[in-house]
Amino acid sequence: MTAPHPLKVSEITSLIKEILEGSFPSVVIEGEISNCRPSSTGHLYFTLKDETSAISAVMFKGKSRYLAFAPKDGDRVRATGSISVYEARGTYQIIVDSMEVSGAGNILLMLEERKRRLAAEGLFDSARKREIPALPERIAVITSPTGAAVRDIIQIIRRRNPSISVTILPAAVQGDGAAESLARQVRTANRYAMGDVIIIGRGGGSLEDLLAFSDETLVRAVAESRIPTISAVGHEIDWSLCDLAADLRAPTPSAAAELVSPPLDDIAGRVAYARESLEGALGGRVERIRLMMGQFSKDSLELLFRRIEQPFLMRFDDAKEALLESLSSRIRDARHRVEILSSTLEGANPRAILSRGYSMVRDAETGKIIRSNDDTAPGRRLTILPERGSITALVEESDNEEI
Question: Minimal CB count within 10 Å: which of 176, 204, 224, 368?
Answer without folding.
Answer: 176
